[in-house]
Amino acid sequence: MAQLRIALAQTNPVVGDIAGNADMLVEWTRRAAGRGAHLVVFPEMFLTGYPAEDLVLRSSFVEASITALSKAAARLAGEGLGDIPVVVGYLDRADLAPRVGQPKGAPLDAVALLHEGRVVTKSAKHHLPNYGVFDEYRYFVRGDRLPIFRLHGVDVAVAVCEDLWQDGGPVSVVAEAGAGLLVVPNGSPYETNKDDVRLELCARRAREAGCALAYVNMVGGQDELVFDGDSLVVDASGELVARAPQFEEDLFVTDLELPEGTGELGESRHDAHDGTVITVERVLLSAAPVEPYEPETPVVAERLDDLAEIYQALVLGVRDYVRKNGFRSVILGLSGGIDSALVATIAADAVGPERVHVVLMPSRYSSDHSITDAEELVRRQGVNAQVVPIADIVSAFEKEIELHGLAAENLQARVRGMLLMSLSNEHGHLVLTTGNKSELATGYSTLYGDSAGGFAPIKDVLKSVVWKLAEWRNAQPGQPPIPENSITKEPSAELRPDQRDTDSLPPYDVLDRLLRDYVERDMGRDELVAAGHDPELVTKIIRLVDLAEYKRRQYPPGPKITPKNFGRDRRLPITTRWRERL
Question: How far apart are CA 77 and CA 410, in angstroms?
Fold first, then answer.
């Protein structure tokens, strides 16, 4: 047996900032060297950031990635770090002739081994996910290699993200190839309960491969996706050895005792059990095991509960969207209701209350408690606030144009949206919208009104979960709480006298159960009724959801936290004659 100290770089790269990501690679490798690491592993497509979407189809972007990889290897050596092997994800291209149906330039979701100033070996993701938020047949061609390098006597294999999730391919030949450790760079976005799925997956693959497995994931927000870290190491029996924190950058160092490699160097071909053949490439870095040393105590970071996970995902999503897009401050309308109160609190936790601006915009229908509840939240959170009454502004519109019913109600929302966008234009604030998933699903939002903005923090949060998050946040010690009245009062848009959400919608716990089944599980009408939902309500809600598709297409992006969000996941035609049997 041989000892090996591995460092998993749970990092937050920025898409397109190839130079900055390369700087981060050098700095984190230096930190790993300071902790005595023998190997450093970075996430999937670390050098370019992930997902880079259509940037990967630009030859200039691919070339910049390839060039940065070689320069990073030379730089590591030049700064005295070349003796530490580094596994890093990057963007490469395959040597394939152009053909119809192949992504332009044949890009590869690649991984490379850097050592002693050079790129020693490289491979690419074999399984290309094409479900949910992933669309990788559009972007990449498939790899067909499994690199194995002998480091201090241990044979270390490398696979990429989806290759762990699918049967067959490179991971299926690891046992036959006889590796002692499998390292897997990942770009795995967060959704509820995914941490449990990851651990079970890694344990199963480790048992199948007959070796320890190190899973490294990135952390941070990228548009609608939030990456939660949660890197982990399991032994050959699938038992958890160590686990990194969630939603935090972390240099995660773990000591392992692993079998010494015995396989012959060179190349061999293996049946991948998915109709393809994988070429195993073995290279030698160092044959002799390291001198025995005292290992560090492995760390298993405490797991967050479900609501804590969701809240941290929303905070991280807002923080990185603001930071990575160069905004210095945010602004939102504060009504005194639960949605805007939660969004303001998330924003304050994400970027600091001094950079959060709220606008109270009472109308002729605003209740006294709505104003006082909003003012109380301002005091508790310490955010910047101003009051802009809209009654006279709405009246000025009404003098020039005659509106009735819903059009008149929506005018108030559009005046508020116009004021927020104007203040954003004047001061450079990012406008945060405050709509939740239940409202977006049923079309209970006003285009160019409450839907106007640049980012939507609770876009993927059902109303019933909004209340739970507010109560969870209030239970955290040392944190200024959301006013209790904002949580307990009956929800209302206050666009007409005595308006209540329940005037036209069922109770939110009933609605949200139906929306989960229809929106997130794609159940049709008959399935919904068979699942126990009221047939009349099913008919009504299906109609509302289907008719609101055009509104959702115009809604700002927001953090994805469920298995299927509006935007990257759920994509339906606006113009369609298809309707569930009503």
Answer: 63
- Tokens linked to 224: 């609608």
**Residue 338, token pair as written in the block:** 């639960």
List of E strands, 62-187: 86-93, 107-115, 118-124, 145-151, 154-158, 181-186
Contact 3, 49 (CB under 8 A): no
Give residue-wise pLDDT tens across range 472-531.
999 999 888 888 888 887 766 555 566 566 667 899 999 999 999 999 999 999 999 999
Distance (Å, whole) CA 308 – CA 549: 30
pTM: 0.93
Helices 508-515 and 535-547 meet at what angle, rounded to 10? Answer: 70
The label of the residue with tokens 């700002």 reads 556
Consult the annotation and say whether 334 binds a ligand: yes
Q: What is the pLDDT of residues 534-555, one digit of tens each?
A: 999 999 999 999 999 999 999 9
Q: Does 194 carry a binding-site annotation?
A: yes
Q: Could you list the active site residues?
A: 44, 125, 161
336 annotated as belonging to a binding site for a ligand: yes
Name the stretches of the chain with pLDDT < 70: 366-368, 491-503, 580-582
Q: DSSP strand E in 367-429: where? A: 384-387
SS (H, E, C) 288-328: CCCCCCCCCCCCECCCCCHHHHHHHHHHHHHHHHHHHCCCC
Q: Which residue has the tokens 């939240």?
A: 377
Rounded distance, CA 25 to CA 117, Å? Answer: 14
